[in-house]
Each structure stands twice: as structure tokens, then as C-alpha cells.
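Quick log. Single chain, no ligands specified.
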Amino acid sequence: MSASPSHFKAELILVLVTVIAAFGWIFSKEALAGLPPIFFLGIRFVIAGIVLFFVGARFFKGVRWQDLKGAMAVGAVMGVAMMFWIVGLDQVSNIGVGAFINSLGVILVPVFARLLFNEQPARSIWIALPVAVIGLACLALGNGLSFEWAQVYFFIAAVTFALQFNLLTRMSTKLHVLVLTAIQLLTAGSLMLMVSPTMEEIPHTVPLSIVGWFLASTLIATSLRFLLQTYAQSLTPASNAAVIMNLEPVWTALFAALWFSESMTGLQLGGCVLIFFAMLVSKWKQVCVFLRLR
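-> predicted structure:
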């Protein structure tokens, strides 16, 4: 079966989304050279949320307070996950390694669905999990026995992202995606801006170059990315989107190698391959559907 023109267009856009998301890691790392991490991400999310609010303002009419509270709760969980992610990014010595650790959240989503909502995960998950654990061990031990807290922060972020994804899935049927995304970003950003003064020093001035990286991460890697992703997902089955989105850590590792001259040991590269393979195995049904549509 061949893909329809609209599906092919959507898939090209989603590939572009993964590229933009990967550049978001680079933009953010550059911005962190002059901004404290939690403050940076809080401001970034609030601005991106305001942009999406105005883009989807007409969809906010008639939103129920109960659904609004649910979206804010999901946003709060997202805020916690993003705080661990951004602190990990600020401290990590190898962005590519961090990206693959962070991607473990994809595999953990059905595990949380089983624990919290008694949903039975596909059998492929139980194959993917031990492969992912081995891959994680390869990444953690790739430089011998050296220890990085950043890797722990990325893992906590992955676990929290898996929880947030499950909650988000249950909210997505109640609110328009632009409404839900805007509320999430505004809530997460506001939470981070409340936490920031208690944990870090806010700078009085910011170099112009850092402002440029901040704007790139906010307008391109956040607002534009979410708009393109929302549009593309409306044109293609969710299974196709899920498979394509797995490319983000691959692009991130590649761009980090080119931009920051990062390199990985053979063991770390093997760990990345194992985690990427585990991600595909965890979505095996979606992969099969995706291949049948080619």
C-alpha cells in the first residue's frame, strides 16, 4: 500500500520537526552560556505559550474550568520534567548521550499506562525494556566508571515525560491541541519561573548573542516546532508520527558532534544503537503499519 500525498507531506514535515527539535538542544545549550537554566526555560515556555495562545485563541471559547485544571496539572508535570532536562543539558558533557537517555521516556510510556491505568502493553515492550537497560548501561559506563549527575537528571526527566505523556493522552480528547499545548507551556513556564529565584541567580544583563540563541530556541525550537507538529499530525496516522519522531536523538547526536565536536566511545555508540533499536521495538506495531503504507 502506498502513502497518500497528504501522508507523504506530513511525514516530510515531521522529519523537519525532528530536525528542529534536535537544533533546539543546540540553541538551548548555547543560550545556557549566559542564562541560568530554569529561568531560561521558564521564560522560553511562557513566551512560546503566549504565541500559541494567540494563534489558537478562537479555540479557547467554551473551555470548561475542569478541563482547564486538568491541562494545568499536565503542564505542572511537564514543568518538573523540563526542569530536570534543562539542568541535565546545562551540566552534561556529551549532548548526544543525553538525548538518547532522554528518549527512554518513549519506551516507559506503556509501562506507566500499565501501572497507572491498568492498560496492557504490547509484548514488544517487554523485549524493548531489557535492551534499553543494556543500552543505558553502555552510555553510563562508556567513559569508564566516571559519573555524571547530568545523566541521572536526563533519566529522571525521561521517567517524568513518560508520566506526562500518559496524562496528556487522556486530556487530548477533551481540548483542542493548540489549547492544550498553550496551557501546558504557560503552566510549565510559570512553575519554572517560581522555582528559579530559589535555586539560581537571575542576571541583570544578557549579551546580545545570548538573546539571539534565546529567541531561536523560543520561536523556532518551541513555537514553530509545535505548530508544524500539530499540523503534520492532523494529516497522518499517529502510528506514522510516532515512528518518525524517534529520529530526534539521532539528529541531536549528529548535530552535537558537528557543532560542539563531541565524540562517543565505541561502547557509547553501541548504547545509542541499542536504545534506538529498543525504541523501534517498543513501537513495533506502528513500525509495521508505517512500512505497509510505503
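DSSP finds 13 helices and no strands in the chain.
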